[in-house]
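Methods — Computational structure assignment.
A single polypeptide chain was analysed. Its primary sequence is given first, followed by the predicted tertiary structure written as structure tokens.
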Amino acid sequence: MGPASGRAISRGANQGKTKIFFDPETKKVLGVGIVGRGLEI
């Protein structure tokens, strides 16, 4: 697993995942998925 974000580290979170889905031809973002405990947007 890669490095966590500064916010995640400051909250003591050490697990979670973020994925960005995009169209490779147009390079437009189609969606974003975030999984983890205590998420806030």
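Note: Residues 6-10 form the longest helix (5 residues).
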